[in-house]
Design a protein that fits this description.
By secondary structure, this protein is mainly alpha-helical. It is built from 16 helices and no strands. Among the domains are: 102 residues, Orthogonal Bundle (Rna Polymerase Sigma Factor, Chain: A), CATH 1.10.1740; 81 residues, Winged helix-like DNA-binding domain superfamily/Winged helix DNA-binding domain (Arc Repressor Mutant, subunit A, Orthogonal Bundle). α6 packs across α7, α10 crosses α11 and α10 crosses α12.
Length: 344
Amino acid sequence: MRPDDEKQASTIAALAGDSPAAWEAFVRWASPPLWAACLRATSRKAAAENLFAEIVDTIHDDRLDLPRRFAASGLASPAAFLANEIDERMGCAIAAAFREGRAQAADMFVRYYHAEIKTWVQRASAPGERGAAEDRVQDAYAQMLEDGGRRLTAYPGGGSFRLFLRRLTLNALTDSLRREHGRSRPRAVLARLTPLEQKAYRLLYEDRLSGEEAAARLADPQAGAAVKKARDLGDLGPLRGRPRPRLVGLDDEGIDFDPPALDRDPEAALIHLEEVARESERENALLKALRDEPEEVRRILQARFLDGKKPSEIALVVGRDVKEVYRIIERALARLKNHLARPS
């Protein structure tokens, strides 16, 4: 551990003693990044000061538990742990602003999360459709901010707000793509793919692998061309009408935030309920297996498959070599597959 990391780790550990000096040292260290986050959410100094004080209060309430949480996080960098703490508390504060009906809630949300939402939409769009990304970002905002931010206020707590928000964004993107392409055209397009291209499509958009990982998994001379064809299509929904895996945080309960409309076609509603029932048991088993993984492994899996970060980016955050990150991901996926293959 570097000298700066050792000093910061000591600052966190000292909070367990609950002394005024330890708290003051922590506030001196945490104030600059927290203030920067508050200014990112609002341009008005008075509003930023109020937000800063609100979040400092929440950290103070949890101060005795921070040393344990840092140790359990598996992060080698105290600065990375602090950044995660600030980000999650910012998300909770913005969700609370919507629940309380504050006038500035929507502006705070857009200012703070615009870069992330735009990145998520761009990564999920086909390369040839990146020019439409800004329109889809606006569609996502319109959906998430309607009815006073109803979807955002549905955040249940206890898990990552950022992962919850990413799921809402991708749900909104799926709705945008359906409006653009219609509901029948995507199925017809997918049906015309070769078997290899369909495998590539599943790996990219159902298993959420990168292009390189999908090509390696296919292990076929034509894998590169198949992956390119699938990526050019973009995410048009699941093959064969299978429900897409729900993107939830590893700590979140499996909650549906956008249930089907009650006035939909009765037959379609019945099919939907049957599909949900078939997937429910498997999904619950997967979430249970994920929760049984060590904290560091869960964070790496979240960063790779839910946040879409590259292994090199994850390595910097968790303080490990890139090869170690690859090994951790490979072994964790093997364990999860074995767990799901066991007879119930």
